[in-house]
From TrEMBL:
Domain ABC transporter: 10-250
SUPFAM superfamilies xref list: P-loop containing nucleoside triphosphate hydrolases
Keyword Ribosomal protein found: no
Protein name: ABC transporter ATP-binding protein
Organism: Bizionia sediminis
InterPro entries recorded: AAA+_ATPase, ABC_transporter-like_ATP-bd, P-loop_NTPase, Siderophore_ABC-ATPase
């Protein structure tokens, strides 16, 4: 399918993000105009401290924008009720899960909260969705383990399974590959790519793994000091966008391999 024919899932108009206190306002990024299409794997990249987490926290309504608008499925994000939002978007932020005493199954089942009654009793559909999420992330064998018994890579799969069990069109993850070794970074991002293909969900994640994101993403959002650029990785390479991401004294982007190299 031509990517231009896919409908938009999330769009920002003149969005300014940052932090407001009684005394002052700190702008992190201003006038972000971005449109992301459904059914894609989308990587958000940028240097340390540029504002990736702030951006994702704003898109997921964890913190308010300073100004401008966010549209989710063409509807203003601010107008969603909490329950509507929980059925449209699932979120995995960097904070560790509250209780590592829970079993893998119990954590994944938390994803069904928007659908269960106040007792939290799981219906047949809920059970089916939890088991499907465990299967899609290949962690069925771990389901009775306590989360404190898991490695960081296994825990990340559990958080992805919880988001899948929530059964939303959009999944947003902040740095899902932090603390993982090279193999597991690639494993998790490949898993996200597979899930997009199998389920036609949209997955937006932030990462410092620019080389991997270039290889696996349909679209990348690049945050720089003065603008936000959204395009297919090959177009971003041609436009020399990655060259401008970091100071050029230590590393350089190699257009041929699509990766960064240390200057000798
Ligand atoms: N609670 C806060 N109050 C004020 N400023 C903050 C707050 N949290 C973050 N910032 C500032 O906002 C800017 C963007 O931070 P953010 O964490 O969004 O960047 P990031 O791109 O996710 O960084 P990293 O890649 O290092 O995780 C930074 O200058 C940071 O100091």
């Amino acid at each position: 399918m031509n990517k231009n024919t896919k409908p938009t899932i999330i769009e920002t108009k003149n969005l300014t993000i940052g932090y407001t206190s009684k005394k002052s306002t700190t702008v992190v990024c201003k006038n972000i105009n971005m449109s992301l299409q459904k059914g894609q794997l989308i990587g958000l990249v940028g240097a340390n401290g540029i504002g990736k987490s702030t951006f994702l926290r704003t898109l997921t309504r964890v913190q308010p924008q300073i100004s401008g608008s966010i549209f989710l499925d063409k509807k203003l994000l601010d107008t969603y009720s909490n329950s509507q939002l929980a059925k449209t978007m699932s979120v995995v932020l960097t904070e560790q899960i509250a209780s590592k005493n829970l079993s893998v199954f119990e954590v994944v089942a938390l994803g069904r909260q928007p659908y269960t009654n106040w007792l939290g009793k799981l219906s047949e559909t809920d059970m089916r969705m939890v088991n499907l999420a465990l299967e899609q992330t290949n962690i069925g064998a771990l389901k009775n383990k306590k989360c404190y018994e898991l490695s960081d890579g296994q825990l990340q799969k559990v958080m992805i399974a919880r988001a899948l069990a929530q059964d939303t069109d959009l999944i947003i993850l902040d740095e899902p590959t932090t603390h993982l070794d090279m193999y597991h970074k690639a494993y998790i991002l490949k898993l996200l790519q597979k899930l997009v293909k199998e389920t036609n969900k949209t997955i937006l994640f932030s990462s410092h793994e620019i080389d991997l994101a270039i290889q696996l993403c349909d679209t990348m959002v690049v945050l720089t000091n003065n603008k936000v650029i959204t395009d297919a990785p090959c177009n971003l390479i041609s436009a020399k966008v990655f060259e401008a991401l970091f100071p050029s004294d230590l590393i350089a982007f190699d257009t041929k391999t699509g990766s960064f190299r240390v200057k000798k």
